Amino acid sequence: MEFTPINEIEKIHAELRSGFYSGKLKSIAYRKYQILQLGYLLQDNAQRIDEALTADLGRPSVENYFLEIGPCIGEAKKVYQSVDKWAKPEKPAFTFNFFAMRPVIRKEPKGVVLIISPFNYPLWLTIGPVLGALAAGNAVAIKPSENATAVSGLLTELIPKYLDRDLVRVVNGAIPETTRLLELQWDHILYTGSGRVGKIVSLAAAKHLTPITLELGGKSPVVVDPSCDLETAARRIMWGKIVNAGQTCVAPDYILVPKEFQDTLANALKDAYDKFFPETAKPSTNGTYSRLITPQAFNRVNKLLKGTQGTIVFGGEVDEATKYIQPTVVKDVQANDTLMSEEIFGPLLPIVPVKDIDEAIAFINARDHPLALYLFATDKGIKAKVFDNTQSGAAVANECVIHPAVEGLPFGGIGPSGSGCHTGKFTFDTFTHLRASMDSPSWVDMMLSARYPPYTVSDSSAL
């Protein structure tokens, strides 16, 4: 994959600005045409996309279709079907005082927007935002991850073939190219990635007063109550951790469980793992389980594993040459353990024993608000207690990871885990300016003549 020459980036920005001002996307029909073309890009090239995802992440084909290709095609269809409705002006609720002024909310594009997408879901976290931005009528610059070289290279090849290059462009590169992009003025920036880089993006955006949406991740906890359906809980938690080798921003990062239930849960997780990976399909076998994205990612996660003071229940096997780290569950992990020092973003699952649910809530609240909080329990009182007394981007009971794909739900964080949200109509809204508008006839002054000077005592009562 070739990086975009730095001296061409400002030119690309200017061409996108010209494309936006051409007015092409004022036409809802042309927006729908671009959305349809993006859908065809996905459909026509599904096999190549699958191969690229596997090349970058070692990910099994089933995961590629379930987590990215299928949801992207589905979202393209939904956006295509909905854009006419979403883009219609809205009338505010009727009020007697102002209805005659014909108030209306216009749905207008913000302009030229920048989407910076990550390596872990390089298709879904690129295509979804682009669909919403186009539906809202914006021109789009895409900065895909330099670590997902196969997918980024494929998108660079395909996008100009399917989409209007006056309106959508890809800029490839690493830190220098991204820095140059951030020096330019955009009308909105959507960034998905680490909190460290999120601060850099925020600072750059602030120089131009550019609005931003940040999806930053963090350590998403799983609270397990003894009232849970144990087999289901173990199966879903284990899947949430092993899918994409734990490189998921909403992956279960650690478990909080009453101490007396810890071993029971650990054994159930081991049973789930053994069913996922029988002797005939071990995770070390190519095509059964993802790999870490880069040698640097492997070394970071491996260092966390080596430094833990907890007890390994199962797993722990690594292979630096193939960037393989076996799914690993570690129990008796303390708050100051290496596994609790940062977002793991890998297939390690620490279990932190606590006294009770109250201590679990206090543990969560003493840390940054996570992107997701998971709870496994059947007791309605426990569900209400945990969700009502914590803060997180999402609060999910008895499920893991898949909530960002649920139609109608927003995907986003709070505080250090992000700001703003996207997916579906929420993406359209993110890239839309709600422009207040009125058209007030002259006869309204018959009712509001008291607003004009010279003021009299009777004017106050009239108004």
From TrEMBL:
The keyword Acetylation does not apply. InterPro entries: Ald_DH/histidinol_DH, Ald_DH_C, Ald_DH_CS_GLU, Ald_DH_N, Aldehyde_DH_dom, Aldehyde_DH_NAD(P). Keywords: NAD, Oxidoreductase. GO terms for biological process: aldehyde metabolic process. PROSITE patterns: ALDEHYDE_DEHYDR_GLU. Coiled coil: none annotated. It comes from the Eukaryota. Residues 14-435 form the Aldehyde dehydrogenase domain. One of its GO terms (molecular function) is aldehyde dehydrogenase (NAD+) activity. The active site is at E215, C249. GO terms for cellular component: cytoplasm. This is Aldehyde dehydrogenase. It comes from Pleurotus ostreatus (Oyster mushroom).
